[in-house]
Amino acid sequence: MQGEVSVCKIFTFDAAHQLIGHKGKCSNLHGHTYKLEVVLKGVPSVEEGQSDEGFVIDFSDIKQVVQGAVVDRLDHAFLAMGNEPVLETLMATRSKVALLSFRTTAENLSAYIAYELKQASLPVYSVKLWETPTSWAEVLAADIPEEGPSYRLYGGCDYE
Ligand SMILES: [Zn+2]
Questions:
Q1: Ligand 1 center to 96 CA (angstroms)
Q2: How many other C-beta atoms can be found within 10 angstroms of the C-beta atom of residue 141?
Q3: Topology adopted by domain 5-58+67-143
Q4: pTM summary value
Q5: Ligand 1 centre and the CA of 109: distance in Å?
Q6: Pairing mode, strands 135-140 and 5-17
Q7: 157: CA distance to ligand 1 center in Å?
Q8: Domain range annotation of the chain
Q9: pLDDT tens for the chain, residues 1 to 160
Q10: Which residues are catalytic?
Q11: Cα(41) to centroid(ligand 1), Å
Q12: Which of 64, 65, 71, 58 is nearest to 129 (CA)?
């Protein structure tokens, strides 16, 4: 749309996961330093003299919502579908687990994150999740059904 500007805030978090049934190395328990790019799009405010004049949204407001809605839950957690044998031990020893109930591929995680941010009323345009420095998955918020993402059963995991 004319006059619109994209703004992006980048986050990182560390997490472990295990893709049960994966044909490659990702069937092993392993971790990633994920990089998350949250893009918002809008027309900057033209209200003269107001605090948000010239802003689409304040970066610190994006940070607060994204930290609270997703990063705090996922950082230094085991990202679980629920079928991982190690899950029982982690629960028993009170290790941090994010029980997500979908296969924890970059594709599914980016859809989950975009949906959570939408639910948190952030005017999110897209979410790009880097699993490694050379691999990312991206979801446009507009492509997520109202009732939430339909998670893919099979997806990639990069192990370079
Ligand atoms: Zn992985």
A1: 17
A2: 20
A3: Tetrahydropterin Synthase; Chain A (3.30.479)
A4: 0.91
A5: 11
A6: unpaired
A7: 5
A8: 5-58+67-143
A9: 899 999 999 999 999 999 998 888 889 999 999 999 999 998 898 888 888 888 888 899 999 999 999 999 999 999 999 999 999 999 999 999 999 999 999 999 999 999 999 999 999 999 999 999 999 999 999 999 888 888 766 555 665 5
A10: 26, 76, 131
A11: 30
A12: 71
